[in-house]
Amino acid sequence: MFKKGLRIVMAAVAVAPLLAGVAWAGGQMTIIVNDPSNPYWLTEGNVAKTAAEKLGYTATVGAHKGDTNTESNLIDTAITNKSVAIILDPANADGSVGAVKKAVAAGIPVFLVNAEINQEGLAKGQLVSNNAQGAAIGAQQWIEAAGDKGKYAELLGAPSDNNAATRSNGYETVLTQYPDQQKVAQEVANWDRTQGHNKMQSILQAHPDITGVISGNDEMALGAIAALKEAGKLAKIKVGGFDGSPDAVAAIKAGELQYTVLQPVAVFSEEAVKQADSFIKTGKTGAKSEKQLFDCVLITKDNVDKYTAPFVLAQ
Question: Is the Cβ–Cβ distance between 81 and 62 less than 8 Å?
Answer without folding.
Answer: no
